[in-house]
Amino acid sequence: MFLHNQVGTGKGRTSFRLFSFLLLTAVILATLIPIFPALVIRDTETNRLVWSSQIADDGTFAIRWTHSINRTPVVETYRVQNGQIILSELTFQDYGIGMETQLADDEQLISENGLFRIVNMHRAYPALHLFIGQVRANHTLLFSGREIPLADVDNPGAAVTIRVEKRSILQAIGGY
């Protein structure tokens, strides 16, 4: 009888096993279930992930590129809101083919320091689709104080899709 109590086959051992099982299940689910929003860039043709980083709701990023006709920089500033990508500002030096010519409600065109800025933009996109420039576009992602040339994450000329995805801890660590 004395030996039986020392082995621990009673209620305490069952509770420990249940607690261990629940803890292990919670850890596995936390690493597998997508919970963190991330800005991701995927090769459109293969859907291969070529770049990813966590981004908070209301986080911002920009894409800078060189206009093919004017050969001047254009900066598109975006913010993330509820999984959507919102174009919030457009900055450029000269009007040219493909540049905005009409303002939506509440948008303003400001001219200052030799630049045009369209502010108060609220244009929502589920994803951005673009071809990485091969000649002079030099598409560059501006993210968290870094400049990331898109030609460094996928081949020039490749079609990429930029979107916000929920990612799990395991996906973030493993990069897939």
Termini Cα gap: 55 Å
The helix/strand order is HHEEEEEEEEEEEHEH
Number of DSSP strands? 12
- Going by helix content, strand content and strand pairing, the class is alpha+beta
Largest sheet: 8 strands, antiparallel
The poorly predicted ranges are none
Helix content: 10-25%
Architecture overview:
This protein is α+β, with helices and mostly antiparallel strands and 176 residues long. 22% of the residues lie in helices and 42% in strands. It contains 4 helices and 12 strands. It has helices at residues 2-7, 11-32, 150-153, 169-174; strands spanning 36-43, 49-54, 60-66, 73-81, 84-92, 108-112, 115-119, 123-125, 127-131, 140-143, 146-149, 159-167. Strands 3, 4, 5, 6, 7, 8, 10 and 11 form an 8-stranded antiparallel β-sheet that branches. The chain is elongated. It starts with a helix and ends with a helix.
Topology:
Layout: H1 2-7, H2 11-32, E1 36-43, E2 49-54, E3 60-66, E4 73-81, E5 84-92, E6 108-112, E7 115-119, E8 123-125, E9 127-131, E10 140-143, E11 146-149, H3 150-153, E12 159-167, H4 169-174
Antiparallel strand pairs: 1-2, 1-12, 3-4, 3-10, 4-5, 5-7, 5-8, 6-7, 9-12, 10-11
Key attributes of the depicted protein:
176 residues; alpha+beta; 8-stranded antiparallel sheet; 4-stranded antiparallel sheet
Short account of what is shown:
By secondary structure, the protein is α+β, with helices and mostly antiparallel strands.
